Amino acid sequence: MVVLKPLPHLSPKLFPAKPKRLPSRKYVTITVGFLCRDGIVLGADSQESYEGSALKRSVPKLAVFPPIETDDDVNEAPDRRVIFTGAGDSSLVDKLIDEAWLEAAIANPNIVEIATAIERRILELYGEYNKVFHAGYMPPAQVTYGIWCGGETRLYYAQGPVVNNIGRQTGLGYKASGMGNEITDYIRDRMRAKAATVDDAVVLTSYMLEQAIAHGEGCGGEVRISVLRNNGKAENIKIDAFTTQILKALDSQISFVLLRAAGPRISDETFGVIWEAVYKRIVNLRAARSKAAKKEREDKEALEKAMKEIEEELEIENAKSEDKQP
């Protein structure tokens, strides 16, 4: 007779009744967008890090369509232009940008129809992907993009399938996304700065992103800024280090001045000396920027001249070699 032994007790820890979801992970970045009276400014950091990982890589986070490089290759200027930046899962962000530009490229040359086509395609993609991913596993993505067509520019922000027109009512707008946006939002609110022009927005974007990179977890690399103007011209902006230095100096020095201005024991004469010292510091920084810009321009001209001389010498040597050949 065979006696059956009872099965050993199985720990519920080994076989949980309900599977646990893996920890959520996402790509970390910071982006900023401004709608100004004369165009749009988009900025981002250049480093991508994976939340929960020490790995980082340098990636382009600003896309301009048609590419800026093609402007010199065509006889006619494009009748539409779109610039994008995004935060979240990089694969999904790239897919959304590619599909959005395809819709923009085939739409009628009307800014409303282009915007409608992009929004419709974003909604379609999320409808398709929601059928593939399990509930709660859809990767996050935020895309900020500016459209130019017919002499008009508009700024949009897509949080998942929801698209909003930024600055539609006032004609001026601002939107930040990704990790570190609390820092950029705080700086803008504290400064009460409304960037009315592209030039103002470039300065503010540069300062915001540098602060986010310095103090925001996951943000890093260099500041990248692209501009789309109301005439359809797009350009990648070279960051002026002296501009952000002046803003940093203003930030710290003005805070110092405000504390002294409110101090009841500080006499008017003492406060005047403090104010004059801060003023001279800012003036000196501006003068240093002008001097550095002049030297950079002179160095560039000298390098171009030297390269031209080398090319001329090589052409002469090649001509001599050809003459010596039988």
Account of the protein in words:
By secondary structure, the chain is of the alpha+beta class. 44% of the residues lie in helices and 23% in strands. The protein is built from six helices and 13 strands. It has helices at 90-106, 111-129, 181-191, 198-215, 241-262, 268-324, and strands at residues 27-28, 30-36, 39-45, 47-50, 56-58, 62-65, 80-88, 141-149, 152-159, 162-166, 173-178, 223-229, 234-237. The strands form three sheets. It has a five-stranded antiparallel beta sheet, with helices on one face. It is flat. Residues 7-27 have low confidence and may be disordered.
Q: What do the pLDDT scores average to?
A: 79
**Fraction in helix:** 40-55%
* Overall radius of gyration: 27 Å
List the secondary-structure elements in sequence, H or E. EEEEEEEHHEEEEHHEEHH
Give the strand order, joined by hyphens, for the main sheet.
Answer: 11-2-3-12-13
How much of the sequence lies in strands comes to 15-25%
How far from one another are the termini?
109 Å
State the major sheet: 5 strands, antiparallel
Number of helices: 6
Query: What is the global morphology?
Result: flat
Contiguous runs where pLDDT drops below 50 for at least 5 residues: 7-27
- Class per helix and strand makeup: alpha+beta
Let me know the number of strands: 13
